[in-house]
Design goal:
The chain is α+β, with helices and mostly antiparallel strands. The protein contains 16 helices and 13 strands.
Length: 444
């Protein structure tokens, strides 16, 4: 982990509900003013302006992204959650906003940070630490991370939650959802209400650092003595509901892996894919956020460091069983078995036409082609992601398929999609059938 400060200029986080609502109201007003001005200009030219083209100008898109990023918290996180498929199946305008929201957030200024820590640790907290770096080494949607050293020389990573985040979750989600609907970024036929409710629930969980500390411990216990990965251990003495203290692990960004030999990249990616299968079928506990910032690489030991367990979710037993059935059906090219599993999971339902169902199954079977591959599957030279993108767009646009599967399923797909993108980025070759072997029927 690099000790380099986050590059963005600090900005105070609006911590009261009124100030956060005012920010979004001002943004809506700014967009409305832009629409009126540009619409009038087009009318004077004799053109009939389309509302969507007026709302989704590059300037408006930039304003939306920058405002949500500056607010952090639920306002920023909701944008990330809506991008469940990492933007590959989203309209370009929405994908642009999501891309900005997946970047590092603007850190809070020192004065606000000190006030936050005074509230969590007491006014004299600096007297109990040998060192504390006020420059954050990372800043994201819910909090930012600082480096500290205890009096006995233990190096810690301190994750500090932005003030006002937890109490503003529900209103932030509702307000941002209204803004997104206003701009027509999602079709009216798409029912995003379940996703919004799930977003609120997850955000409340992520804002509880005692829960994240517990998930961190549970995940470490599941990993056991797996030497492919390093997971920090929580430091309970300094952990509160809004501050999470854990081991500071010296490691580099994931891009360092690009300089490693092919066999190292293949081994690391194989370990990650195997871990995914263990999460779904063995742990029934999944770290569902595939953000690349959640991985670091230790060059000296050739290990991956796993970070950020706020988005860790339990996988329901019935869902784990149905995904095992789906996996086995994909491995044997059994469309009837995949159809049954897809219905049981909720990826499709009785309201869908045969054409829609066939299109969904085709995408599912194609997404699992690596399981049917003999020997290592070359993600680096595969156009799988591009093919899935094209079929996904055709599914929504040509087949009018606007279906929201169960949220637990979405998070599983999100994690696997992130791993596919990482494998492509690393040019890795992975024997997926061997990685999944413990959960495939022995008769295959």
């Amino acid at each position: 982990m690099s000790d380099k400060p986050a590059p963005r200029k600090s900005k105070a986080i609006p911590s009261s509900r009124l100030s956060r609502v005012s920010r979004l109201g001002a943004l809506a007003g700014k967009i409305a003013g832009s629409v009126v001005t540009q619409g009038a200009g087009q009318l004077l030219k004799g053109e009939k302006p389309a509302l969507s083209s007026l709302l989704l100008t590059p300037k408006n898109v930039s304003n939306i992204a920058n405002q949500l990023a500056s607010m952090r918290g639920a306002a920023m996180k909701l944008g990330q959650l809506i991008s469940m498929d990492t933007g590959d199946f989203l309209p370009p305008e929405l994908a642009a906003i999501m891309g900005r929201l997946r970047e590092d957030a603007d850190p809070m200024p020192k004065s606000q940070l000190v006030d936050t820590l005074n509230h969590a640790w007491g006014d004299n907290w600096q007297d109990s630490l040998l060192y504390f770096s006020f420059a954050p080494i990372a800043a994201a949607s819910i909090g930012q991370v600082h480096k500290a050293i205890t009096m006995d020389g233990k190096m810690l990573a301190i994750k500090v939650q932005y003030p006002g985040v937890k109490k503003s979750i529900n209103s932030d989600v509702d307000n941002v959802a209204t803004l997104i609907k206003l701009t027509g970024l999602v079709p009216k036929s798409l029912d995003i209400a379940p996703l919004l409710e799930e977003a609120k629930q997850q955000l409340h969980q992520e804002a509880d650092y005692h829960r994240e500390a517990a998930m961190l411990t549970r995940y470490r216990e599941h990993l056991g003595k797996n030497n492919d990965f390093v997971v920090p251990e929580r430091f309970s003495a300094l952990t509160t509901p809004t501050v999470l203290a854990m081991d500071f692990i010296e490691a580099d960004s994931l891009d360092t892996l690009l300089n490693e030999p092919q066999e190292t990249r293949d081994r690391i990616m194989t370990s990650l894919m195997t871990l995914f299968f263990k999460e779904v079928f063995e742990f029934t506990l999944i770290q569902s956020d595939p953000n690349l910032a959640n991985y670091k690489y230790k060059v000296d030991t050739k290990q991956l460091v796993l970070l950020d367990f706020g988005a860790t979710r339990e996988v329901p037993t019935h869902l784990s069983q149905q995904y095992k059935a789906l996996l086995n059906s994909a491995a044997t090219n059994n469309k009837e078995g995949m159809l049954a599993a897809a219905f049981a999971i909720g990826l499709i339902d009785e309201s869908h036409s045969q054409a829609q169902i066939s299109a969904v199954l085709d995408i599912g079977m194609e997404a699992c082609e690596s399981i049917r591959s003999e020997g290592p599957y070359d993600f680096g030279n595969s156009d799988l992601i591009a093919r899935l993108h094209d079929k996904g767009m055709a599914l929504t646009m040509q087949h009018d398929f606007w279906h929201t599967p169960p949220v637990d399923a979405l998070f599983i797909h999100r994690k696997l999609g992130g791993l596919f993108l990482l494998a492509k980025r690393l040019g890795a070759r992975v024997n997926m059938r061997a990685a999944a072997a413990p959960w495939l029927d022995t008769t295959l």
